[in-house]
Task: structure prediction
Amino acid sequence: MPTFTRRSFLAAGSLATLGWPSLTASVQADEPQLVVRQADPLNSEPPLPALVQQWITPNERFFIRSHAPTPKLDAKTHHVRVDGLVQRELKFTAEQLRQQFPWVEKAVTVTCAGNRRYEHSRTKPVGGVPWQEGAIGTAVWGGIPLAALLRHVGLQVGAKHVWFEGVDRIEHNADVIGFGGSVSLEKALSRDGGLPGAIVALEMNGQPLPLDHGYPVRMVIPGYIGARSVKWLGRIHVSDRPSPNHYMQTAYKVVTEDRPQAWAAAAPIETWPLNSILCNIAPGQKVRPGKVLLEGYALAPGYAARQIQAVEVSADGGQSWTRAKLSQRMQPFCWRLWRVELPIAAGTGELIVRARDNFGAVQPASVPWNLKGYLYNAWQRLPIETP
Ligand SMILES: Nc1nc2c(c(=O)[nH]1)N[C@H]1C(S)=C(S)[C@@H](COP(=O)(O)O)O[C@H]1N2
Ligand SMILES: [Mo]
Result:
C-alpha cells in the first residue's frame, strides 16, 4: 500500500518561491527515461524514483552531460593518439585497444561536480546546467587499464600527469575549444580497491558506449568528478604538468569571486564529496501521515577506502534521526542505495537526510555558496505536505 500520493498537488508557484525545482519525483508509467535540462547541447537526468530502482543504472537512464553536440565517430577509423613524454608515440582504434591489452569490467559511479546545483542557486545565481539530484549513475565499464597502455608505450623521465582530450568542439566565448582534463600519473597507475585508477572504456553495461556517453572510447576515472572522465577520447598526452585545458584550469574549480587570481589560485576539483539523497518523494509532495517508505542513494567520498556507514533521516528538524537500511551491495567508488520506513506525523513539513562514512565524516548541515555551483553536499532538506 502506498502511504503517499503518487503526485504532488502543491502549486508549483509556492515551490518556486522556496526555490525548489518543479515536481519531478513522481513514479509514472509514462515518464520519460531522462528529463532534459538543456536541449542543445544535450543535458539530461533521470527521474529520481526510477534512478534508485536498481543498483546498476541502465544506459538509457544514465544522465548525460555534454558541452557540445555529440560527435558521430566511425569506430573503424577513429584513433586515440598517445604522445608526449612516452618512449613511442602510437595510435589505436578501439578494436586495437581491445585486442592488445587486458580487459577489465568494473562498476564505477560517475557523478557531475554540478549535481544538486539548484541548491546553490537558491542562495545566489550560479552558472551551468540546473541539475537536481540525478546527475549521477553507476555502470559497469568495460575497457582496459590506462596503466597497461602506458606500460606498452613506455614513459620518459619527468612524466607526472596524463592529459585526456575529447574530439568534441565547444563554443566558448568567441572561441572553439576542446574538452580535456588530466590526472596525476600516480592516480593513473594506482590500483586502489582493486580498480585501475583510470579506465579507457569501450563498453557501458555490456554494450558499446552509447553515442552520448562517448562512443567509441572514453575515460572513466573512479572517485573523480565526471568532468575528468573525458568522452569521445582522441588523445592521451603524458606531461610533466597538469592539462592546461579550460575545463581543468578554469572551470571545475570552487571559487567565490570571478577574478583571474581566484581562478588561478584554486586547485582543479578531483574527488567527489560525501552525499546522500532521498529519491522517491518530490519536494512539496503530499504525504499521508503514518509509515512512509523512503528510498535513495548515498555516495562516500571518492577514495577506495571510504564507505557509506550510515544514512539517517529525520522528520523533526534534526532532533531525532532514524537509520536507514543500506544495500548489501557496496563496492569501492560506487554508491550505496538505502531505504527506510519512517513514521511521519501529521503536520510534518520537512524531511532531512544525511550520511556518514567509515572515516567518521558526516555531511555538513550547510555548505558555502560558490560561483559555479559545484559540490553541493549539505543535508538534503525536503519540504513535504502532510494534512
Ligand atoms: N569530451 C567530453 N567529455 C566529457 C564531457 C564533455 O562535454 N565532453 N562532459 C564531462 C562531464 S562534465 C561529465 S559530468 C561527464 C558525464 O558523463 P556522461 O554524459 O556519460 O554521464 O562527462 C565528462 N566528459
Ligand atoms: Mo560534470
Notes: The radius of gyration is 21 Å. Helices lie at 12-18, 48-51, 94-100, 117-121, 146-153, 185-189, 246-249, 260-265.
